[in-house]
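Convert to structure. Protein one:
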Amino acid sequence: MGFELLQPRSLAEALEMKKSYGEEAKVLAGGTDFLVLLKDQKLKAEVVMSLRGIRELNFIRHEEGKGVTLGALATHGAVAASAIIRQRFPDLAEACAQVGAVQVQNLGTVGGNLCNASPAADAAPPLLLMDASLILASARGERRISIHDFFQGPRRTVLQADEILKEIFIPQIPGRRGATYLKLGRRKAMEIAIVGIGVAIHLNGSDQVVSDCRIALGSVAPTPLRARHGEEILRNQEIRDELIEEAAEVAAEEASPISDVRASREYRLDMIRVLCRRAIPAALASARGNKVEGLS
């Protein structure tokens, strides 16, 4: 398992290396997925570029009136513990707190979780709910894309050969927002999601009528996805048990899970329904408890 190791100390240096090596240089962030794939010979690399020494990519920054920006090297542990994230985006904090054991959370990064492009990536569903955008950098410059356009398939993204994920931007969300992320796995620690579901409920004034609803699914399709038809069932409606049931059913119809060693297709579809029935009331209760207008 020999390879050439590149260790840039700045983003500018890393981008020049990526320009020179292109796809030949595999990027390592936290390494919690990368090194396992390398060890199991599911990934081949002759050149590995470690980003661990680039401190400018490791931050969580809140800009009043704009939103929150995560450096690509912000760890799951830091995001889960951040007061800013826990207050404004509890679903993202919950997702990061469920990525493996504490050791994995303290090493693995949100950027690496996204770039690995696993359909089961825990950070993806909450970021889909928030319409996050990703800043991709290269020696040529930077470009911003929606997270909805980032994933192309299992372990495939729109990142070009000379690009590195620099930042994740979460825009300010007005009004009263309640959200949750539920993950089904065989055990709490070190488990890939069998099904992951994020739900966000938005209220404007009334505690009864939902102004917006968002449902995101992980581990049930080639990429993480929004269940947009399921969302429409609840949008601009007063939430009732029969509507929750209908939304859960429609969300399951939007998924295309496979059967594998962890679960069958049929089981995953059933669990989408079960988790939706749990997540929607939880998100609604969270939104109703948010009495202060503004970020929540």
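Protein two, convert as well:
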Amino acid sequence: MRGYDDDSNTRVFIAIALIGGLIVGAGFNGIIGIVLPASPQLNVISIPDNIGAGKITNVKFITISKSAALGNVNITLSGAAAGRGTTDENGMLELAVNATTNGSISVLASRPDYQNATSVITATPKLDVGTSPSSITSGIDTFVTFTVMSMGKPVAGSVINISGAGISFEGISDPSGQVIKQLNVPSTGKVVVTAIKEGYTDGSAILTSTSQQVLGVSASHNTLIVNVPVYVTFTVTAGGSPVADAGISISGAATGDGITNPDGKTIILVTPHTTGTITVSAIKTGFVSGSSTITSTGTQSLSVSSSPSSITAATPTFVTFTVKSDNNFISEATVTLTGAASGNGVSNLNGIAIIQINPAGPGTITATAARTGFTAGSTTLSAVGQQTLSVSASPSNVTNGVATFVTFTVKSSNNPVSGATVSVYGGGITADGMTNTAGQVTLQLSASGTGTINVAARNEGYTEGIMTLAR
């Protein structure tokens, strides 16, 4: 049979040795009779000599003559299975035998100048057992269908024995070859399913009972404030995966409930009514319940931060304020601005309030976050004055009636300023340009008359820079 290991081959050679001994022994005890004809007698052994009908089985054939292995012997099968082959120099041949019906398979061994040998292989139909599902969860009522088949057809009247993992019962397959049973396996492990019927080889299968997964539940907040309602996101997982349709129950210093979505999440508005512990439990059929806790405390302080922390006076700027308490984002907190600018906003679920600020001049702006049940918190940001632009020209003078290319350079605090507008006016000239990344722009100028030639550099957020051109 295919897959025979070394032990199987050893048994084959032992069989050959035993047969050789029997041949030499007196009388051969009726097992192998040798007639002394003109031609020597062949002998053939089949291993195994009983196979399952409707299944392909690898059978090993051994041919012997005069107590020794004999090769180059033709093997012919007929009856419940057909096949042909020739033994090798060691008298060995392995064939894949497919018995299409139950009954006998005749084995004929032949070789010229030798007397033929015959033997018989019995083909018995084998029961095949299937379970659906093949795995169930311990402690959970589950309907399982057991199906008994043989040679592709259902087998009625087969006795099905089911045992293991704390259960044991029997059933009889119906005309469709099935037994349907509701199981509640008390422990984990293997449940062995065996099918037995007279005239068939027993069949078996394994039904696996696995343990229930434990639910884990986490909360977006680990601390809440008495009498302060907060939307809390609860996430339920099992084995690292989100669990949908799990029930969330809140008890203790606060109450509430919810059902998780396909992402294993649910959002519940939680309002603690006293200090202490809030217990959050996750429950779902087929899982071991899980829980976690949230602490409910008295009044806590708010903190507020700003981004950016410095802005330019007279320049409208959107500033993001983030409100927290004990590292938890606080929603519905009012952020109020005083000092060099005024304004207000309300934080969202992420504790964020965005306010546009346009201070009239430089100074300090104070942002205060307040909410019922919390001690107010504040932060400051600076409003700085606008930087001043400077503008220079090369060349710095022009001649009436002579077109001249003049390069203007715009800087602030000795740093080039790009995107600044340079305007030249007076003395018969009107021209405009915009500086490049080097803070420069080149204009062609043609002066006339006697008026002053003025140059102005402008950019948002900067104080204007002015110069004049000589001529």
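The chain has a mean pLDDT of 89. The first strand starts at residue 43 and ends at 47.
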